[in-house]
Amino acid sequence: MRKHIIACYLGVLLISCFPLWVFAAEILFDNYQGGLSPKWEEKSFKGETLYEVTQEDTVICIKATSHSSASGLSYKINYDTKKYPILTWRWKVDHVLSNGNALKKEGDDYAARIYVVFPSLFFWKTRAINYIWANRLPRGKAVISPFTKNSIMIAVESGESKTGQWIEERRNVFEDFRTHFGQDPPRVRAISIMTDTDNTGEEAIARYGPIRILSFY
Fold first, then answer.
1. Which of 214, 215, 216, 4 lies closest to 89 in space, CA to CA?
2. Tens digit of each residue's pLDDT (9 = 90 or more) over 74-98
3. 18 has pLDDT over 90
4. Tens digits of per-residue pLDDT, 115-167?
5. Is 160 left (phi over 0), alpha (psi -120 to 50) or beta?
6. How many CB atoms lie within 10 A of CB 169?
7. How far apart are CA 151 and CA 124, in angstroms?
8. Average of per-residue pLDDT across 58-74
9. What are the residues facing 41 on neighbouring strands?
10. b/e for 58-81, b at 16 or more Cβ within 10 A?
11. Per-residue DSSP letters for 127-195?
12. pLDDT of the residue at 186
């Protein structure tokens, strides 16, 4: 994935974000009941990954299909991770990418990823945390993106052992940011999903269930 992160950051800065004025214990981004919310914006880097709302195993979800392509969906949002530190979601992939490798530019593809974007007025200072379904990177391992030091890749799942089944994930974004960037995070301005296979030239299918942020663990 060449220059994807920087290009995405520039796009996020142009998005008109809306703060969460009402403090609640849980906020659901989109349940997909009426299709995709207009707050989702597609960003294409190379070709287009197909994103469509479907239902599988009683779960209404976004199905992503990538054929040597790289595009993502970015959800416009504005919130403080001190108030909403927890990000939770469900996802499922058919298989991992044979040539995927989070340590190399030519392997920087993922069957599924969810990433949190922390923009800056100076785009080169924009940071992101990528929660990835890795191929060979061990589960729980975090590395710097091969494209930019401002992007952290965290393998919340890895390998084939859980492919084909829905997996529930839960991350403390506030603590992840402090751990890897050494300071408190700025406000989140976007949550994005992306299934990309442009570098490896492979194919991937993933499903993303509804995404929530929580004020408690």
1. 214
2. 999 999 999 999 999 999 999 999 9
3. no
4. 999 998 888 789 999 999 999 899 999 999 999 999 999 999 999 999 999 99
5. alpha
6. 16
7. 11
8. 95
9. 74
10. eeebbbbbbebbbbbbbbbbebbb
11. EEEEEEEESSSPTT-EEE-SS-TTEEEEEEEESSTTTTS-EEEEEEHHHHHHHHHSS----EEEEEEEE
12. 96
Output DSSP code: residue 204. Answer: E
Q: Quote the pTM value.
A: 0.88
Give, in order, the Cα–Cα distances in Å from 21 to each of 78, 79, 188: 10, 9, 14
DSSP characters over 21-87: -S--SEEE----BTBS-TTEEEEEEES--EEEEEEETTEEEEEEEEES-EEEEEEEEEE-TTTS-EE
